[in-house]
Amino acid sequence: MEPQEPQPNLANLIIEALKAKGVNLVRLSEATGVPEGVLATLLEEKYDKLPPAPYVRGYLLKIAEALNLDGQKLWAEYLKDRSDIKRPGSTDILPPNRFKTSRVKKTTIAIIAGVVIIFGYIILRLPGFLGTPSFGLAPLPATVTSPNLTIQGKMNPADQLILNGEEIYPDKSGNFQKEIVLQPGFNTLTFDVKKLMGQAYVVTKQVFYNAPTSTNSSINNGNTTSTKP
Question: For residue 34, what are the contacts with CB-CB under 8 A and spacing of at least 6?
Fold first, then answer.
C-alpha cells in the first residue's frame, strides 16, 4: 500500500505557494504589509503567539491575494481544531484603534472658534464700556476779550460728550474741537462725559468775558461829546 500524502495544512499551503512564486518571507512581507514575524509564526504553526483572530483573518486574506490562493480556504485551515477562538463571519472587521483620536465635526469646531472670538472681543472691549470715562481738556484762559472761544480736548471716541446741553462729536482718534460764543461776564462751561454702561464724569470751567465798553460819539454845534452807557 502506497503511503498517503499528508493533508495540506495552513503552513504547507503558504510554503508551497512561496516556492511556486519564488519569493521569500521578506518579499511577501513587503508585498502584503504583514510583519515578517507574523509570517514566520504562521509557518511555524505557533498560533497561540499570533494576534487576535480578526487581525489574523485580515493577514491571511492579504497573503492569499499576493500568492493567488483562496483566502477563505486559508482562514478555514487556521480555524481547524481551534476551539479557543470564536468563528467570525464574513462581515467581521478589525477592532478600532482605541488610541485614535475621534474626529470632531468641522461645524462644531467653527462654532466653538466663533464663541471664543466673540467672548475675547467682549473682554477686550469691556473696559471701554464700564468705569470712569477718560477726558482731557486743553487749558482755558480765565479771562478773554473776544466772545469767540475755541474748546479743544481729547476723549474716548466711544464715550458721549455734552457741553452745556449740546453734544460734541469727536473724531476717530477721540480729538474734539468746538467754537462757542461767550456772553459778557462769567460764563460757566459744563462738560458732561458719559460711558455706554459706566459712570458719568462732569467737569465745570468758568471763563470771564471782558466785553469792551461801547462809545457813542455825536457832534453838536461843533463839539464832540462822548457818552458812556
Answer: 28, 59, 62, 63
- pTM for the predicted model, two decimal places: 0.39
Topology agreement, domain 10-79 and domain 135-209 = no
Mean predicted confidence (pLDDT) in 154-162? 88
Alpha-helix residue ranges (DSSP H) falling in the chain: 10-21, 25-32, 36-43, 53-67, 71-79, 106-129
What architecture (CATH level 2) is domain 10-79? Orthogonal Bundle (1.10)
Residues 6+ apart with CB under 8 A from 21: 67, 68
Domain ranges of the chain: 10-79, 135-209
Residue 187 has pLDDT above 90, yes or no: yes
Domain at 135-209: CATH architecture: Sandwich (2.60)
Written as nine digits, the cell of 4 is 498517503
Radius of gyration of the chain, Cα coordinates, nearest whole angstrom:
49
